[in-house]
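Thread: Modeling a multi-component assembly for a lab meeting

Hi all, long-time lurker, first post. My supervisor asked me to bring a structural picture of a complex we are working on to next week's group meeting, and I have zero experience with this. I have the sequence lines for every component (251 residues in total). Could someone generate the structure of the whole assembly? Inputs are pasted exactly as I received them:
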Amino acid sequence: MKVNELIEKTGWKNISTEASLDKEIMGVYVGDLLSWVMGKGEQGQAWITVQSHLNVIAVAVLLEFSCVIIADGVIVPEDVLQKAIEENLAIVLADCSPFECTRKLIEFGY
Amino acid sequence: MQVINQQFIVERDDYANAGKVSSQVKQTLNQIGIPGELLRRVAVACYEAEINMIIHAWGGTIQCTLEDNGELTLTFKDPGPGIPNIDKALTPGWSTASEKARQLGFGAGMGLFNIKRVSDHFDIQTSPQGTTLTIGFLVTS
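Re: Modeling a multi-component assembly
Sure thing. I ran the full set together rather than chain by chain. Output:
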């Protein structure tokens, strides 16, 4: 599934650049400890987290994640959004918990 | 002959720019055609070491060299305060990160462990005067 299909099916909102929505979601990782994610995350995954600071973008870009799903409707600061746009990284805002986000992605076959 | 020889400065507590050097290193290596899997290993190691300099050390320098025989070396030098117990620092889950660092999602205690796991060569020398971490990767064509 591509990031834009995920958005269509869930109603979650892309708050980054439209250009980043064509990436294929190859899997999912859930976590908020950056070093843990850095060590375990894999290319192409969608990353579900409640962290929304600049370092999230750095980790997601270095690992080449397909998108970052910010759960629980956590507010994403403007400088973080600008960085995501600059890096062509999709930031998907979900108004449900990390657990509910995960459940949704499992329903989609992940 | 050195194909690449770059040096970067990392400032203490500069959370806003954490990962910037790692991105630059990754970009440079990507431009010369380093394969994706190796590129990601280098990026993981570089990021973790860069973060350690920001969180735990008083800043420092990062040097990236690539020799024409394929030896890629990243050297991280800081001026202190040193790592009191290397064995503990290499144990997954053990961390001395500050409350501020933890709030930002750092301090999982996975940094040095991750670096050692993804690198082909790992050496760390530490004293109260500073720490030098040298990691190597073999680039094969």
